């Protein structure tokens, strides 16, 4: 992320900016998967896990909310490189804080062969009906926002014509946009911790090590991030083409209908899953692993309470 910010600051051609965007995407995906896996492992209780993950996801939304106006003002009044230099400094400070407060020690168990245990791998997770339905719900909801990004500006220019600050109907567009963002946030806050709890129940090896549990979280959140990435990759591409064929209003009606129709299916699938009974076992695994460990990493697990 630091390298991407610096390349954005000094880049002055298309190739360098595309490279920086790709590096930023890789860094963002790694942070998202590892961060959510850490939170899921540290808080095995469903109630506390949902609360903490909601705060984490809300922090991401807060960064987006603040970043747009701050970045725009810095770009206009200071220069193109200013926001990226500031982001680079903040990333460096955050990295130092992580080195100071996080136990960056790999447990010995991660080096052992896990082929004989119940650790979840990519293919069982991808073919699991519940995981597929939940991940597809995240992809569909995110696709709606992704389709808006290329289509809404074109529709505004074609129908409103005046500059955005003087357009009389912009305020009416803000309400559905706000509702869409709110809906995506609520959906993510509910489904992201649900995935961790479901993996605990079905694929967790409660007699195994905490590193195997962490591996389960890494796989499921990698799939979840792939769904988001697919939405932002193909959403604008197909959205732009569909807007030409269907028109912007009908495209929005279609996406709204898909989201509404998919909701009952998601509710039906998730309501049939009993997530009770695995949470206490999962917590015991983390605590017992910490007590038996012979290295400083045990403090990470003992910090649950």
TrEMBL record:
For this entry, list what GO says about its biological process. aminergic neurotransmitter loading into synaptic vesicle
Under SUPFAM superfamilies, the record lists:
MFS general substrate transporter (SSF103473)
Keywords from the named record:
Membrane, Transmembrane, Transmembrane helix, Transport
Q: Which GO terms describe its cellular component?
A: synaptic vesicle membrane; terminal bouton
Q: One MF term in GO for this entry? A: serotonin:sodium:chloride symporter activity
The record ties this protein, via InterPro entries, to: MFS (IPR011701), MFS_trans_sf (IPR036259), MFS_Vesicular_Transporter (IPR050930)
- Its topology with respect to the membrane? Multi-pass membrane protein
Localized where? Membrane
Assign the protein's first listed, main location to one coarse class: membrane
Q: Does the keyword Transmembrane apply?
A: yes
The organism's superkingdom is given as Eukaryota
Q: Which Pfam families match?
A: MFS_1
Would you tell me the protein name for this molecule? Major facilitator superfamily (MFS) profile domain-containing protein
Give the originating organism. Answer: Phlebotomus papatasi (Sandfly)
């Amino acid at each position: 992320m630091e390298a991407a910010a610096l390349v954005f600051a000094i880049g002055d051609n298309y190739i360098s900016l595309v490279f920086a965007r790709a590096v930023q995407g890789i860094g963002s995906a790694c942070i998202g998967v590892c961060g959510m896996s850490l939170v899921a492992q540290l808080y095995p209780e469903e109630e506390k896990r949902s609360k903490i993950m909601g705060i984490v996801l809300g922090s991401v939304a807060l960064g987006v909310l603040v970043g747009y106006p701050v970045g725009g003002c810095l770009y206009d009044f200071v220069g193109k490189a200013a926001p990226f230099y500031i982001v680079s400094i903040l990333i460096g400070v955050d990295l130092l804080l992580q080195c100071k407060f996080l136990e960056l020690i790999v447990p010995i168990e991660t080096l052992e062969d896990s082929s004989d245990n119940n650790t979840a791998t990519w293919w069982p997770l991808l073919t699991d009906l519940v995981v597929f339905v939940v991940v597809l719900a995240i992809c569909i909801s995110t696709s709606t926002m992704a389709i808006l990004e290329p289509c809404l500006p074109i529709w505004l220019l074609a129908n409103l014509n005046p500059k955005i600050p003087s357009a009389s109907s912009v305020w009416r567009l803000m309400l559905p946009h706000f509702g869409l963002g709110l809906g995506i946030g609520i959906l993510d806050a509910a489904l992201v911790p649900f995935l961790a709890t479901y993996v605990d129940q079905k694929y967790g090896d409660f007699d195994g090590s905490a590193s195997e549990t962490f591996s389960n979280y890494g796989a499921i959140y990698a799939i979840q991030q792939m769904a988001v990435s697919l939405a932002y990759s193909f959403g604008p591409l197909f959205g732009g083409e569909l807007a030409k064929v269907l028109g912007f209003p009908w495209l929005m009606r279609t996406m709204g209908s898909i989201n509404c129709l998919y909701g009952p299916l998601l509710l039906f699938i998730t309501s049939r899953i009993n997530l009770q009974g695995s949470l206490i076992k999962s917590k015991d695994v983390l605590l017992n692993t910490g007590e038996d460990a012979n290295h400083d990493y045990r403090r990470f697990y003992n910090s649950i309470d």
